[in-house]
Amino acid sequence: MTPGYSGPLERGGRRLADRALAVLGVQRTERVRLRTPAVAAGSCAGLLGGLVVGGLLVAQGLLAAGGLVAHVALATGAGALFGAAFGHRANGHGAIVGSGLVVGLLWWLVRSLTIGPLVTGAGAAWSLAAAGAAVPDLVGALLLGGALGVGVPVLAPVLVRAFPTLAEERAAPPAEPVRVVVVGGGFGGITTAQTLDRVLPRGRPVDITVVSASNYLLFTPMLAEVASSALEPQHISVPLRAFAPGVTFRHARVDAVDTAAQRVRLAAGPATPPEDLPYDHLVMAVGGIPNYRDLPGVEEHALTLKTLEDATGLRNHVISQLERADVEPDPDERARQLTFVVAGGGFAGAELIAELFDLVHGVRRYYRGIQRDRLRFVLVHSQERILPELSEGLAGYALRKLRDKGIEFRLGRRVAGMTPAEVRLDDGTVLPTRTMVWTAGNQPNPLVKTLGFETRSGALACAANLRVLGASNVWALGDCASVPDALNRGTYHPPTAQHALRQAKTLARNIAAVLDGAPPRPFRFRAIGMLVVLGHQQAAAEIRGLKFSGLVAWLMWRGIYLAKLPGLEKRIRVLLDWGLDLFFPRDIVLTQVPRAAARPELIAGDGAIDPAPAPDDTLHLAWDDRTIERIPLRRPRPHALRGRAPAPDPRPPSEVRG
Amino acid sequence: MRTSRSFDALAGALAGLLSGILLDVAMTRLGLLSTIALLIGTDDPIAGLVVYHVVAALFGVGFSLLLPARRLGGGETMLWGLAFGALWWLLSALTLLPLVTGARPDWSLAAAQAQLPSLISHLLVGAVTGLALGTALRPPSVSRGSARLVAGSLARGAVAGLGAVPALAVAVPRWAVPLGLLTGAGFAVLYPRSPDGGGPTVVRGACYGFLLWVAVALTIAPAVGGRDLVWSAEGIRAGFAAFPGWVLAGAAVALVHHWLGAAGRLLFADPAARDDEDEGPGARGLHAALRGAAAGLAGVVVFLPALPVRGPAGLLAALAWAAAVGATFGLGFRRQTHDLASGLGWGVAYGFVWWVLGSLTLLPVALGGTPHWNAPEVAAAFPQLLGHLAHGAVLGAGFFVLQARTSPWWLTRTEAEATRIARHRASLQGAPAVWVLVVVIVLTVPLVLAAPA
Predict the structure, then answer these.
(1) Where would I find the H helices in A111-134?
(2) pLDDT in tens, B213-239
(3) What is the mean pLDDT of residues B180-203?
(4) Gap from B406 CA to chain A (nearest CA, Å)
(5) Contact list, A140 vs chain B (CB under 8 Å)
(6) Domain coordinates of chain A in residue numbers?
(7) Using a CB-CB distance cutoff of 8 angstroms, which residues of chain B are in contact with residue A248?
(8) What average pLDDT does range A321-341 have in this prediction?
(9) Is the pLDDT of residue B396 over 70?
């Protein structure tokens, strides 16, 4: 699909011309169809108009007869430029006549009142007296401009009819559009598409399509605040269609990629069959998924924080636990309900445990049956210090601040397994809890392994220019790509948002370069810094080696992330949310029955946990081990209930328990 | 098609004839009929009257056949009529008429000043012809008689007319309120639906104000008062102080009328009726304002020869002013510039409006004085007019270039999208008339104010 240019000089020249024409909003094909006849017509109109106006000037004694040739030549050139700039049917005849007069006025201003006097050494003559003296020039300029305005649209079709080759000879055959498919609508994917749309000349036949299972761009740094009820979910998510209006969007899940046939297989939707999407260049930006390390019960019972649904589900779950604990007569069960565990002491885990702490303590006043000292927050981390990405001093600061709040830390410990009622650690410790959020590991999306290219730690092995090794037209970035660091040989870029964002811009420019026949460039980037928020008005930040903490860092966090939030509207909404949070308590409205609040267990007749469906394709849902509901199953999947909340029972809990 | 062209020609002839009849008195009082009779080799006023009516009818026919689009509505067709009249004057009065009568064409300032009465008559003939033709060919949606639409527009026009009173209070102190209300009502009738975009509406309003200045201040008021028509250069110069007031009054009426309409649509219109409109100023407004500000700052370079205040303070003030003008241009013309022609056209037109508003009004007031609206003061501010025009050209072209790079709304990928923006393109059909009219207004300024050598 790449145009076959013959050499760097010609290639450079064409790129320059394309860019210049793109700046004027002109497509290459349009240039050939419209501008060439327009230039010819403009030249003719300029020649004729110049002759008439020049002749009238000569007749009035305002122009020497010898100057007529120069005048006509100038008018002809001006006509050609006029035709090139305005075309001949972009706006209809009326528009171009109007433009002719405007250009005539400006031409008078430039030539008669500015350049002319400057050439004679008199300086720009913008006075009324000079303008009055130059009125004949103005009349002539307006008449010439009007002649061009009338002449170009009238003469161009005549010339095309008389000389058909004028429009056809240079006409390039309409090129097939180059199809670029971006799989993944996260920051990496959508920024790639958006940048590509911007750097490619407008009108160039390139079709950029983004395929994503969600139709919004999620601003993940603020996801924990959604979980803590500080922000509204929709305020940190931007519709992809609005974010990149020049890009085609497909709301679909990708089932498979056939790199040999260059097709992406879209999964069937509720009302649509599976569909193949052909591509010429493929960008894999599918991100990562939680890695539960095959720990027993963790995938089934732990909550995650990757999507908006996760965040609202977690918020509902926590509030639901408080609702239950408020009236729970059994002290052991109440302890489970009031214990909140986060696995993983990285950025996500540290921020989340602090936000959960703020949420629970912020709404505790509504639950009069819950005493403060019964609340328990535990962070489990496999290393001896949290936040390994930060310097030791700042990580220690964060640990101190979180401990001061009352958060427990189990450092150097790993989660070994989980049941609906407890979390077991690798040292045998048991944490009775109904809530554990898993942030302790991610892995690249398994889809990348199906492409058949080399992988490193599950991610597509890429060259420094972000092209997948072994492929000429497959690119990858973000969490699903393993990209060598061009500045530090032997190391790879970490899967962070700031890297993905920069990779997206480099990748887009590299695809544009390849389309132009130029070599792609390696991705070079040094991390700018790290920011972690530690709950109410506390944060730690390290930017270019400078360390900040406390209120200053917290203000920096809010300022920087607010600026990075896409879209003015969302920024204003988030700012309003933050402002309202100062004056009003957090909301405890339960918007859905959380899946984990009354987590149904899949049980067989003897009460043992059995993820397989019953022979009659019926799920037996046990509510608090007493009441059993039977729900017909359509698809016998072990985790059919994950992500789906059971329909709320209109009866109060006591009735349900019966 | 043939039938509609014939109907257009007939309607145009009648509209032209109507305009000729309406202007009979003025032409007679000014003694212009004898001049017109020269076309057939006599100086008999009666023969001139016949020729004048024939020419007016032919003018109407030509105009109706050359009108770029039918069913534009009264306001837009009237603007095209004005532009057509001005173009015809430029071609005929200064060039063709002398050639036909065997004289040498004369484009000098003195000759052009001598033809000012002719310019005014051409403008009025064009306006009346356009208005009559626009009424005859008005769009079906309006002709179906949406009384509610017109009533709502009149209500907005009344409020908008009150907004024009401050400007008219300087131009016509005793009659400011009634004339303001009439101005508002007139605009409301011409544009029952406000034109798209705040910026183009303001420029249209300024042109409307210019027409009212010609019609009311130069024609109707003297005629009603039993005085001679002030169509000569000296007469116009003597009463030139009313010119900025009328232009600003028209712009204010248009802007307030537009804002009220937009607010009404925002608050009360069914979403389905607004689904092809823009996303709203909050969605892309900031980007448009920033692009406009950048283009405005780039335009400062060409404004330098006309800086009213020299030195660093003047430069800083000019930079701030340029950024502000650019930002308002970005907001007002966001969906209105889709090629270099429209960028230049609107930029120059907006530059003219800012000359009247900024250099003649706001700047003198900000410096502690009164608006510079009388002839000598306007003459002194003439270099700034040129500066504003040059700045507007760079601003408009620069804004278009920036927009083309980042969000070219006019390049669509789907049919649905193309249909949605077609309305914006359609609204540009009246735009070239506005640009022509602004050029003619600019031309009028030196013709009126400059002293012949």
Answers:
(1) 116-119, 128-133
(2) 999 988 888 888 877 777 888 889 888
(3) 88
(4) 6
(5) 107
(6) 14-168, 178-213+252-290+444-515, 298-440+529-583, 600-658
(7) 413
(8) 94
(9) yes
